[in-house]
Amino acid sequence: MYTQSFSVPDEPGQKHIKAVAPAEPAELMAKFDARIDSDGRIEPQDWMPDAYRKTLVRQISQHAHSEIVGMLPEGNWISRAPSLKRKAILIAKVQDEGGHGQYLYSAAETLGVSRADLLDALHSGKAKYSSIFNYPTLNWADVGTIGWLVDGAAIMNQVPLCRCSYGPYSRAMIRVCKEESFHQRQGYEALLVMMKGTDEQKAMVQDAVNRYWWKCLAMFGPPDADSPHSAQAMRWGIKRVSNDDLRQKFIDATVPQAKVLGVTLPDPDLKWNEERGHYDYGQIDWDEFWNTVNGNGPCNKERLSTRVKAHNDGQWVRDAALAHARKQQQRAMKEAA
Ligand code: BYC
Question: Whose CA is nearest to atom 31 of ligand 1?
Answer without folding.
Answer: 227
